[in-house]
């Protein structure tokens, strides 16, 4: 699976204003709403579901990256977005580092396989230091889109 | 029915006893030879010593020929593994008890679906739900089996001031996912339809998720508004205490949680930002006094030990707590606690029993519970492949007046049905069915 299969480029945020975990999730979900990717009356429920998942264990996977996600019946295909925070947000990550790079994913419950493949794709690509660093240094949404495109074309990850 | 119980510990032994008493054919597997010897000598069961997650052992226990498998050992992973294998080997319905809340969260990984298990039961969660319900909606009828306990039915009287009086149901705006199930008027009960008109004094049943049902209820019954935030003091921050603290709406309740393990306290205060977590032993009278045990509206004892819960409950009662609730597992204590002034006791064994007896049904019926007055039942039904209900939209099925579908669970998510909804194989529905039409309606969900 490629980023292009589930990342909505219109909702990418190159400079998140959030200073807390919950705000960061709200900001990203809101940008998916503004891009017409989710239904307005489902916004709060989706945020609550993602927060509920965070309480079981942070999706901050270290090195300044977090992958908040949930499955939700209101979406009929995988939808995701990317956000970058210049100052970083405390996300209770395992390594204690502030999170600068967010990949948020919402999946329909019918396709558990696709959900796992999308998470796997994100994790695999983010193993590449250069890709991570470039994303964190991105100034605009277009820069981020382009990096994702390059990753899809196998210009970063080795495996 | 042929029942396979995995684990002969406290819960397993008791389930075996309960089901033997109901004349089911019970086979028990346990890894401990002493337990196997004991259960063999006490109950009329077939007991096998071995690891229930080993295929040879399951095969020997004739898992392939069993109607239901109940995996209730003390180990979550063993339960999941064994229940999954039993299902694959041919058990019709497979249920696993799990303690850790992780298995009930499907946002990263859908355990239940991946392992092909019909139901993952958390007795701690269900006990907590019962405690929460008796604090929030004491008269509600719980639907424990369905949607991991997420639905409830609430019977409410329509007050004369209610703005919906004189309106047809189809004109009434209810919170999302809440339905009016039945109407009772002048000793008559019937399934609600869109054309029914609400009258003052009617008893209506509201079905949906608890928070929304509470909202809907205040629409019809105006007098019950709580004036101020109430205080809840919880003794013990294990899974049950955590669930209770998490499930009570923080706008309505001010919650204090006592936990004596410092590490656990640190975790709890992270998990429960709106709750006052206090590192203290709830069994000290001075602690209860300091933390307002006397002035609290609700005292909930769930320390994990019967004796401690009873003692703390008695102290809280004496200090002046308004209502005292607690978890007490041993059935021989049940008689005593009432006399000691504890208002309500929840036991994991009773919770387990209700769950499991609910599962002991044939065909499409997963569980059943009668509504008050007896004319209507609440059914949880499984949609079989190629069954009649999958062939048309809900409005086009011959259900009107006999069977009211109130919620649909699909892939672990619950939704309220719409007129053009069509059921799919594997969906689970909660429906109110008129007793007289039970067999005809249930048949629509089964294979032709």
TrEMBL record, chain A:
GO CC, any one term: cytoplasm
Keyword Transferase: yes
Superkingdom to which the source organism belongs: Bacteria
Any single Pfam family the record assigns to this protein: PTS_EIIA_2
Keywords on record: Transferase
GO MF term (any one): transferase activity
InterPro entries reported for this sequence: PTrfase/Anion_transptr, PTS_EIIA_type-2_dom, PTS_SugarTrans_NitroReg
Subcellular localization: Cytoplasm
Protein name (record): PTS system mannose-specific EIIBCA component
Lineage of source species: Bacteria, Pseudomonadati, Planctomycetota, Planctomycetia, Pirellulales
Gene for this chain: manP
UniProtKB/TrEMBL annotation, chain B:
Every RCK C-terminal domain range: 141-222, 366-447
Record bears the keyword Ion transport: yes
PROSITE patterns: RCK_C, RCK_N
Domain RCK N-terminal, residue spans: 1-121, 229-347
Keywords linked to the UniProt accession: Ion transport, NAD, Potassium, Potassium transport, Transport
Tree of life domain: Bacteria
One cellular component (GO) term of this entry: plasma membrane
GO molecular function: potassium ion transmembrane transporter activity
Identification of the protein by name: Trk system potassium uptake protein TrkA
């Amino acid at each position: 699976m490629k980023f292009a299969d589930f990342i909505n480029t219109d909702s990418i945020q190159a400079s998140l204003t959030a200073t807390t975990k919950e705000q960061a999730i709200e900001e990203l979900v809101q940008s998916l709403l503004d891009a017409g990717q989710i239904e307005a009356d489902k916004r709060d429920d989706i945020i609550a579901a993602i927060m509920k998942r965070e309480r079981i264990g942070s999706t901050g996977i270290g090195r300044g990256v977090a992958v908040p996600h949930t499955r939700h019946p209101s979406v009929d295909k995988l939808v995701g977005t990317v956000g970058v925070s210049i100052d970083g947000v405390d996300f209770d990550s395992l390594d204690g580092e502030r999170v600068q790079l967010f990949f948020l994913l919402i999946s329909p419950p019918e396709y558990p396989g696709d959900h796992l493949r999308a998470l796997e794709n994100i994790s695999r690509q983010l193993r590449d230091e250069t890709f991570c660093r470039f994303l964190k240094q991105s100034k605009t949404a277009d820069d981020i889109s382009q990096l994702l495109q390059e990753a899809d074309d196998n210009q970063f990850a080795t495996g | 029915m042929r029942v396979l119980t995995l684990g002969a510990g406290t819960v397993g032994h008791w389930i075996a006893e309960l089901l033997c008493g109901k004349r089911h054919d019970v086979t028990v597997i346990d890894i401990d030879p002493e337990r196997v010897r004991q259960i063999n000598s006490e109950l009329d069961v077939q007991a096998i010593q071995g690891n229930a997650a080993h295929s040879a052992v399951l095969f020997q226990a004739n898992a392939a020929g069993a109607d239901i498998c109940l995996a209730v050992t003390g180990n979550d992973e063993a339960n999941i593994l064994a229940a999954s294998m039993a299902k694959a080997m041919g058990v019709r319905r497979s249920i696993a008890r799990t303690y850790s809340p992780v298995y009930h969260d499907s946002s990263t990984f859908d355990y239940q679906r991946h392992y092909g298990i019909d139901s993952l039961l958390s007795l701690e969660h269900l006990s907590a739900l019962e405690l929460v319900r008796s604090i929030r909606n004491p008269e509600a009828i719980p639907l424990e089996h369905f949607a991991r306990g997420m639905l409830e039915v609430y019977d409410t009287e329509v007050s004369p001031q209610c703005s919906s009086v004189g309106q047809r149901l189809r004109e009434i705006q209810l919170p999302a996912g809440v339905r009016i199930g039945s109407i009772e008027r002048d000793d008559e009960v019937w399934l609600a339809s869109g054309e029914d008109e609400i009258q003052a004094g009617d008893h209506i049943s509201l079905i949906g998720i608890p928070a929304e049902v509470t909202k809907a209820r205040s629409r019809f019954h105006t007098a019950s508004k709580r004036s101020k935030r109430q205080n809840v003091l919880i003794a013990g921050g294990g899974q049950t205490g955590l669930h209770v603290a998490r499930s009570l709406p923080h706008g309505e309740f001010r919650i204090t949680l006592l936990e004596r393990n410092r590490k656990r306290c640190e975790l709890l205060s992270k998990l429960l930002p709106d709750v006052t977590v206090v590192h203290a032993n709830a069994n000290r009278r001075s602690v209860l006094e300091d933390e307002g045990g006397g002035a609290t509206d609700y005292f909930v004892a769930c320390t994990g030990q019967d004796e401690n819960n009873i003692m703390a409950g008695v102290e809280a009662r004496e200090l002046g707590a308004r209502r005292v609730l607690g978890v007490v597992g041993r059935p021989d204590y049940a008689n005593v606690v009432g006399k000691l002034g504890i208002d309500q006791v929840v036991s994991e064994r009773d919770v387990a029993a209700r769950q499991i007896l609910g599962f002991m049904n044939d065909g499409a019926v997963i569980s059943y519970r009668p509504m008050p007055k007896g004319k209507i039942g609440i059914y949880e039904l499984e949609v079989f492949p190629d069954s009649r209900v999958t062939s048309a939209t809900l409005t086009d099925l011959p259900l009107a007046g006999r069977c009211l579908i109130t919620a649909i669970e699909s892939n672990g998510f619950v939704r309220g049905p719409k007129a053009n909804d069509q059921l799919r194989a594997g969906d689970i529905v909660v429906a109110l069915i008129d007793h007289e039409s039970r067999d005809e309606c249930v048949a629509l969900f089964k294979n032709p």
